[in-house]
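Build the 3D complex.
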Amino acid sequence: MTFRPLTRFLPLCLLGAAIPASAALKVYPDSVTLDSPSSRQFIIVQQTLPDGSTVELTTQAKVELPENGAAKYDAATSTLIPVSDGETTAVIHAGCEMVQVPVKVKNTGATRALSFRLDVEPIFMRAGCNTGSCHGSARGQDGFRLSLFGYDPAGDYFRLTREYVGRRIDLQFPEQSLMLEKATGVVTHTGGELLKPDSAHYKVLRDWIVAGAKDDPEGTPVAKGIRVLPEKIVMRADAKTPPAHHTVVLADYSDGSVRDITDLALYLTNNEGTLGIDKTGKVTARSSGGAWVFARFDKFTAGSEVIVLPNSQEFAWQEKVKPANYIDEAVFARLKQLQIPPSAPADDAAFLRRVKLDLSALPPTEEEQKSFSEDTASDKRAKLIEKLVASPEFTDLWTMKWGEILQVRTNNQNNADSGRPRKAAFRYYQWLRSQIAANRPFNEVVADLLRGEGSNLTSPPANYYTTAFGNPRRPFERAEDAAQLFLGTRIQCAQCHNHPFDRWTMDDYYGFTAFFSGVSSKRGAMPTEIYVFNNNSRTTAEHPVDGRQVPPKFLGGEEPALQGKDPREFLAAWMTSPDNKRFARNLANRAWAQFFGRGIIEPVDDGRISNPPSNEELLAALADHLVKSKFDIRALVRDICNSSTYQLSSTTVPGNESDDRFFSHSMVRRLQAEVLVDVIGAVTGAPATFNGQPQGTRAVQIFDGGAERDYFLRQFGASKRETVCACEVRMEPTLTQTLHLINGSTTDQALQRSPLLNELSGSELSAEDAIRKLYRRALGREATGYELARFCERAKDLDLKDKTKTRRFYEDVLWALLNSTEFAFNH
Amino acid sequence: MRIPFFSVLTLSASIACAAPTYNDDILPVFKNNCTGCHNPDKLKADLDLTTYATTMKGGSSGAAVKAGAPDSSLVYRVTMHLEEPEMPPKKPKLADAQLNLIKEWIAGGALETKGGAPAKSRDAALAMSLPAADAKLDGPPPMPQNLPPAANAEVFSRPAPVIALAASPRAPLAAVSSHAQVLLYNTETKALIGALPFPERQPNVLHFSRDGSVLLAAGGRGAHSGKAVVFDIKTGQRVAEAGAETSDAILAADLSPDRSLIATGGGDKIIRIYSTKDGKLQRTIKKHTDWVTALAFSPDGEKLATADRNGGLHLWDPRTGTILYTLAEHQARITSLAWRGDSLILASAGDDGKLILWDTAEGWAAKSMTPADGSKKDRPGRKTMLLKVPGVLSAEFASDGRLAATCRDNAVRVYNGNSNPVAVIKDLPDIPTAAVFTKPSGQLLTGDFRGVLQLWDLQEKQKKAVPAGELGK
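Done.
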């Protein structure tokens, strides 16, 4: 069924009577206050169709206001304009439906003085004057500096008016002010023409100068937040006429006033492929999918979700895959909403290999493959998951994952200031491993780290604060690390200016920094020993803009009453509390990413308003279950692996090919460096050895990470553990990797030493059986007929009695398999 | 605690009568606080404070002590936390009594022992060697005759900052920048005499010649064009022009005393020297790393001082273009340069809060002052606004060697020939942008951000200035 616009949403109203207040017709905003003569309110009329999609009817709708009322409507700009003080109602008709919008008009007699902060500064942001590449740069641009995105309005006012008196503002001939002549491009301006002389923004700047370029009086309201309306837009893709939909942005101020800032906000989207948004806030659909549009204003970013449904596709959800648990409910609900079909369930072989690699970082053995395929129990997958989650290999893998971001690392000659003495790093690793082995509630583990104190050798959690032994992290760096590690939030931007894409201000940043102001260390008895302690008298951080001493304040929370105690105690309690949703969400998201190759928020440690989760309900449900299980990571992993979502095939079906974030099919993921080298060892039976590690240590067991010392691990992107960033693990393919697998020492030595190949060449197995066996070993599945035929063709002339030649042949077969894409990936 | 009577006596006597000395007063302070690091073995920053000789020698950051000038002595600045690195490191500031002792010791000449001779006092250079140059001039002081009236009368309802202000060295005449014109006032009658049209847009610089017969006005249109014009005061005629090469307003300019040269500077960082005869460019100097914000010929014409927005200050031989000295001290924009009548002392005012008197024969800072109070560490916006110390916006010498400076703390300060403050005007409603001395009354004329041109009678004995009317009112 294809809809054509206008015929479907504007049926003729035969009776001529409007149906009041239909739920299907909405107007944004649903009430309007115009509180100054210059106030304007842009309105949007939206209709929801039976298929759930929304259509904008702003230009088609009829907006009526009483004659000589308090306000009038300008149809050309879809704007309500104040006329006189009072109240009135705008009646909006579309088709047979009608909505009433109450309109209050105030202060039409008064003239509101233009304000630097409320009127002028937003234009600098909108026009791009104060971006980092222009005057917002730390050193300004061409001699004139504005604070980045306006974090320091007092400083901006000073620089504009009094830093260089007479240079930028001409109070006698405002139009001839250098600021205006530059902005309009009348004189040389590196940034070119940013404002038209007839634009509303130009007039605001000029009129502010005409009025004397005055600073704001005390008590000038400040913005408290912004809203993007409608909260949700659902469009149906159409290749010929891409559907469009406007947004309206409102700012709420500290004095209770609300202002239409649609023409002052900046717009962006997190998925350019799916949609675009222009300077007026108009959203245009490009292809089907889910995305967000964001508006930025002052120090706020707010978003609105936009779903673009596939073009006129007959979509009916088919219960091909049954939901196994809450995860599937959330994932499938999202897929239904987006009209993306899920793939079929993965077969046993694919599942077995996937879950083995994911939970124990080892490939399935032949025996495991055999017994699993022969097992007919309906709960055999769940049982296997149970077994693997309880295995020591699981502990090894998770210790490595946390070791990466907790930077369990040994210092070395190349980098003496980074990392720890070997003994301390080993103690840290042992401690971490024991916590994971005992399945201790993970919030308690994190609390121990945040409170860490004492000797780095005898009190392992103290090592959380000894990341850089020779060059201790500064308090603000510790704050950044903690936020990124445990809250999945990067607050770095707010060190120097308010975060442009998130809610964090410099006040938040230095409030959070203050928790770490007292963290100190002193040398111990041995050169490798240091004691971490907290100086409880140092509990504030200096704010660089005004030199204020900022007391500790939870990120997005309260200021604790310290009463002379170690602020980190309060931080640990707040951070790991079940009420701290962001902590649980971050842990859940990191766990999820382990199994899907990407987080629900991706990158997992870069959650922000402008990077929302691809499935909010899913993330909330995972976090909820994690909290309910008392931060039992293994329980969470069991839930994930038992979900139908995890067990979907990686083979796509029509309609989900382009999905890379809603989990409609299993993601094909390259094996992480450590896992890959271990898998090569397991498949060939000739595990690699690692410098400085005991014989038999697998790569995932190297306590301080092997990237520094091992060529293979380094080339395949193992984490160097130099920062807390999840991005330290690099998964990008490189030419060196390919060449190394083809003819590098790792593959070569494994094949040369392989006891498997010795056994095969010495056995009575036919070539075909041997090839089958190699397929099972390397790829965890049976060779296909085609694959067998190709290899057997080569084996035709092979004399099985010639052990040397036979071995060489099998070596070639295994070499080919190790170099296949399938081998290096989990799918 | 009981203190023996005689020791109280000696203590009070030493405070009352003699400046502190290194051996008696300062070494104990250093020993308790400094010599743990600044000793001959550790020699932190190459500075050894354990002996008088090495203390006076200084360390890797240069001289630690400048006798007579505590405010420019590093040892005082870092212990007072006026400058980084704050000393002693990671410890609380020294007690006020100890800091005072250091200050007095340096101010008193940084004596080694009680009988010792003071270290060479740089204040000596402050003594003025030449009689006031304008005493030699003959004839009646030039005043304008038949100037056109001020244009754009409607703009006077909109107050605009005083961007440039100059007073005739001989006549009761003040020149004030206005939009596209220079207004001339009689400072005795306080009346507006007329205007010199400046269609080039905004005059940023105004300078009278030494005899008061011509006025240099320079400025232009930002990011567009610049011009320097010499006006004949009597006729109001343009007698010379320069600056066709510039593509931005001129920010700094001066006329050489023999009126043969005009030097200009601006946003392109280039110093241009023009001949007044034909307006032709004679020389360009490319040395400054930021906008050239001030420049001035010495009254004897032997030197040209140029300064920039980055604190750079250079002295040149204007005839050859060779550099004489680079005077490095300012940390932020130099806002103003002024020569004393004897051509020996140059005053530079900076947005770093410093007002420095340079001995231009020797090329060092004879005196570094911080007119506005900079000790308030918690001043809001100090980093973003470069206002750790409120900046000094202008400096101007009187013919008798007095110096007037306007400061961002809304104050105007006047110093006598020994650079002691003799009058302070405080709590102005907005920043004073310029202050000049008028003739023949000797009154101070200030201009501010509101556009108010206020005359003041200086009552130096009472250390105050009394309002004496506004120009144009």
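Chain B touches chain A through 36 residues (CB under 8 Å).
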